[in-house]
Q: What sequence folds into this?
């Protein structure tokens, strides 16, 4: 597996944050931190291959709202809603893995490693286990004190490329970085409820969808008269569903994109050449993905004395 030397070309964007974030932040305060995270993710990955997709989705939904501050991990309490209750987050999974890692870290190094960094490190390790790039991430984030479902405004799967790019551009991302980040769908999944509008059995078939894929999804999702029960899961890469590779881009070029936004990436004039480039060069995709993930993980973070180091990732310290 190639080790990518990531160049942080965007350092100038966040000089204050990057003064505190650094690779190996816990080298002295908790030398075993990254090993504890890596071993826990590896144990889970052996039995649950969806863990990579779950962590990527959690990572994105955390970082895209208030920056990577672990606010997605906070449970709602009586009188206090949390981001977990926002519609895009209600089906997020694998919070218990973060809990397991946090318990182990609290035993090894009490009140030292933030929940925000745990999520960053666990996602990086899960990507590598699935065959994706191995890259170093700076750590030193602090945990946020706010988790408000009304602030959750992540790009929707029904968006056009221009609509999605408006969301990413507002966070400082280029179109190429957006296309690279959406490559996480190579190990992703969705549910029938987000795809029905494109299927022939629920109305008019989306003409941009391959008829064979339409037929396959109809068998899974049912019809308007007889929809499948329990909103079944659907993998987004119909070929190498659990392998982190560039097959996603090849699939959407064959009109086999499951989500509307995925298919539009391959058709829109602004993005189709980027898609073609990633489809042809898997190493280029992985390199661009790693860089974009580091950038996403470093936007609007809490550092220094801001926030706190949560003892339990689900609960603010003052609620203990």
A:
């Amino acid at each position: 597996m190639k080790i990518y030397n990531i160049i942080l070309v965007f350092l100038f964007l966040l000089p204050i944050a990057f003064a505190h974030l650094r690779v190996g932040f816990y080298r002295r305060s908790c030398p075993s931190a990254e090993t504890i995270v890596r071993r826990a993710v590896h144990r889970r990955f052996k039995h649950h291959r969806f863990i990579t997709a779950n962590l990527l989705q959690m990572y994105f939904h955390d970082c895209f709202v208030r920056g990577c501050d672990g606010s997605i991990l906070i449970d709602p309490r009586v009188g206090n809603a949390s981001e977990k209750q926002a519609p895009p987050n209600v089906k997020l999974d694998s919070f218990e893995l973060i809990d397991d890692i946090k318990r182990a870290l609290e035993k090894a190094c009490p009140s030292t490693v933030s929940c925000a960094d745990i999520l960053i490190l666990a996602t990086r390790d899960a990507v590598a286990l699935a065959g994706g790039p191995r890259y170093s991430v700076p750590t030193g984030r602090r945990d946020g004190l706010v988790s408000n479902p009304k602030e959750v405004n992540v790009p929707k799967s029904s968006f056009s490329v221009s609509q999605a790019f408006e969301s990413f551009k507002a966070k400082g991302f280029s179109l190429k970085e957006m296309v690279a980040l959406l490559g996480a769908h190579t190990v992703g999944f969705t549910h029938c409820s987000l795809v029905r509008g494109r299927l022939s059995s629920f109305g008019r078939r989306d003409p941009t969808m391959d008829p064979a894929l339409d037929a396959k999804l109809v068998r899974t999702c049912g019809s308007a008269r007889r929809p499948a029960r329990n909103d079944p899961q659907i993998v987004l890469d119909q070929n190498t569903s659990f392998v982190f590779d560039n097959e996603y881009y090849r699939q959407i070029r064959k009109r086999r994109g499951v989500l509307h936004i995925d298919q539009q990436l391959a058709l829109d004039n602004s993005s189709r050449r980027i898609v073609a480039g990633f489809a042809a060069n898997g190493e280029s995709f992985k390199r661009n993905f790693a860089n974009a993930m580091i950038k996403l993980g470093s936007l609007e973070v809490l550092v220094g004395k801001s926030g706190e180091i949560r003892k339990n990732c689900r609960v603010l310290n003052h609620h203990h």
About this structure: DSSP finds twelve helices and two strands in the chain. Strands lie at 189-191, 233-235.
